[in-house]
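Checked the freezer inventory, then went back to the computational side. Two predictions to log before the end of the day. The first one is the construct we discussed on Monday; recording sequence and tokens without edits.
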Amino acid sequence: MAPGRDAEATGSRAEPVAGPSARWASLTAAAVALLVYLGLRTWTGLGIGVEMDRTRVNPMTNPLAHLPLPGRFYAALALGGRYLMYIIFPVRFADHADYALSAPPPALGAGAVVTCLVLLLWGALILILWVRRDRLCQPLGLSLGSFFAASNLLVPIGSLYALNFLYLPFIGLCLAFAETLGRMPPGAAAAQNDATPAPRRWVWVAAPLLILLAAGSAIESRIWRDDISLLTAFTRRFPHFAMAYIGSGEALLDRGDKASAIASFEQAQAINDASAGRHNEIAVALTQGTPTKNQLEEALSHLHTAVVLNPGLVEPRIDAARILIQLGRAAEAEPLTRETLRLSPDSVPARQTLAESLFQQSKYSDAAAELRNLVRIRPEDPDVRSPFVVSLIHSGDLAEARRAAEEARRVFPDLPWFDFCLARVEARAGRKDEALALLRRSLERDPTTREWIRKVNDFDGYRGTPGFDQLVAR
């Protein structure tokens, strides 16, 4: 080789030796980054320790995080090996391990041992390249460091199957592979630089391998066609992962497949029966559409179980009260909603449900008092104004009912329903002409008013009179 030829032409990619000032600058930058990292951890309340508080990890999304040591480490090693295989061969990532505390504790199996050896060799290779000042250590270090962050080996992470975290390890390996290929110049360039050309046989090895990997990636990508395909694949590949069944159940419920959604939620419940959320989700699925009485009773049972498992939950209490009202058991719904309001005084759905339970028990004055507070909170909600006006009508407070109906007409001038409500007030007050004028206005804007008239008895005294009969007969 000519004396002037630089070392890079040989393919060794040796880096220039840095001076003392450059080394100190690098060390200072690394120290500042570490201090910033530790400061942010302290500021967010995580502390400066490496071990993460496992109570912060949802046991449904990552049950592995709650396993005791050393079983947690063995399980993380075995799962890490599956991650490594998936990075290199992206085909059918699956995990049939059961991480429940009730299952046998994970043991140190062959998968964990092989993964440990691979990681040790990977780290040793990075160290050797770093000592030799070979820049290939940088992408390999990136891939290994980001892989540890994506696994549960160092600290538990939020999700058990964090496949989206594998992009950085994959990018690091791609950069290392590209760097390696760049050191294998083609024949003409190799002859010019006195370097060893890349053997042609590598082309025959690389081409089929690339085709195979591309085909595997294409096949794997089919599970991302839609949410049903993805989550169904998850339930097959992760049969002991409750979140897969929960996601599948929610997707099926959105598609209107109530029976399949319930089956999926029940499978999630079987995996973790101590989860209040699973019972609540089954109850929601059972009440979709037009549920039967048996389905409502079953949903009510699941909601009661959810409340027993987690007494602080508000939503299952409200849903249970609504089901009781549907079943004609408003007297049971009232104390349940009052207890809910003690837990969450600002809950608007709970107050609405309480008002409905009072109305169904003919406690119209009490219902109106609850709804009056809701009108102050939601003055633009017709679904709050309507039961408020109707409750006042039934309570006999015609002056307050007239005031509320007139205010509702001003707020909702396009809704003939409040014309009809005010007509009821005027009819009860004996003001026939005003009542008929309001009914005429309501009928002109919405013919459904005739159905409303048939459902109330406020206008029974008008039947058989020319003005009323002609109006209704149109």
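The second is the one RB wanted added to the comparison set:
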Amino acid sequence: MSSLKKDIQAWLSEERVPWSNDIVKEELMKLVDNVHASGDRYRVDCIAEAAGHLVVCLPSYHCQLNPIELVWSDVKGFVTAANKTFKLQDVDTQLWQGIKQVTAEKWKRYVEHVIAQEDVMRKLDHFIDDVVDTNAAVVITLEEETMSSSDLSCDEDHDM
């Protein structure tokens, strides 16, 4: 994504693709991809949409945006704590017990947690777009005198 946000917006305008000022660069790139890949759709998405369902695809490599990952982690933790025999039959029983202990209230908390993560990422997206598009430089100045790890220790030999 080396193009500037304003260049992407200009291209979308030329292609008569509607866009909004409040969306981030990544979302603009998705609009660009939609122009290039119009017509490429999965059959299962078409079937789900024909049945009146909204298809939402999660971004790759962002398991923190998927509540089922939190549920699965909870179930695995339950099985790990309960497993004393390491026999497959016992693990199977514990797995089902772990699944049953995931209540509607836990699901609700997991979904709320994911929504909070989405909000944080949305804010960071806008921040990153602003920094990249303004070409703001981050400068870290190292002092000539640096401290060693011995300077930071609390040994009795050092006077404070």
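For RB: The longest helix spans residues 104-133. The chain has two domains: 1-57, 61-138. Let me know if you want it refolded.
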